[in-house]
Amino acid sequence: MKKIRKLLGSLLIGIIFISWYSFADILPLKQNWLVQTSHGLNVEGNVLSTSDCVTDNWYKTEVPNTVLAVLEDNGVYPNLYYGTNLKKVPGYQDDLWLIMPKDSPFRDPWWYRTEFVVPADWNGMECTLHFEGINYEAEIWMNGHKIADRSEVRGMFRRFEFPISQNLKYGEKNTLAVKIYPPGLLPDKDYDTKQIEATTGWDDHNPQPPDLNMGIWQPVYIKTQKIVALRHPYVETQLSLPSMDFADLTVSAWITNLKEQEVEVTVKGTIEDRIFEQNVKLSPKEKREVIFKPEEYPILHIPSPRIWWPAPLGEQHLYLLSMEVINQGKISDTVQTRFGIRDVRTELNEEDWRVYYINGEKILIRGGAWMTSDMLLRLTRNRYEALVRYAKEAGLNMLRSEGFSIRETDMFYDLCDEYGVMVTQQIFGRTILDEDLAIQCIEDMMLRIRNHPSLVHFLGHDETFPSEKLDKAYQDLIAKHRVHRTYQPHSGTFVTTTRRSTGGTRTGTRELWTYAGPSHYYLRTHDGAWGFAQSGGIGGIIASPTSLREMLPEDQLWPALDTEAWSFHTVTQGGSYFYALRDAMNDCYGPAKDFNDFSRKTEAMNFNSARGMFEAYARNKYKATGITTWKYDTAWPAALSWQYVDWYLRPTSAYYGAKKACEPIHVLYAYDDACIWVVNSYRKDITNLRVSAEAFNLNGETFWSQTKENITVEKDGKTKIIEVNIPENQRKPMFFLRLQLFDENNQLISTNIYWLSATSDIPGDSGHNLKGIFYTRPKSKADFTMLNELEKTKIHVEGKETSKTEKDRIFDVQIKNIGSSIAFMLIPELYAPDKPGYELPRVYWSEGGIILRPSEEITIQAKVPEDTLSKNATPLFSVRGWNVEQMQ
Question: pTM above 0.85?
Answer without folding.
Answer: yes
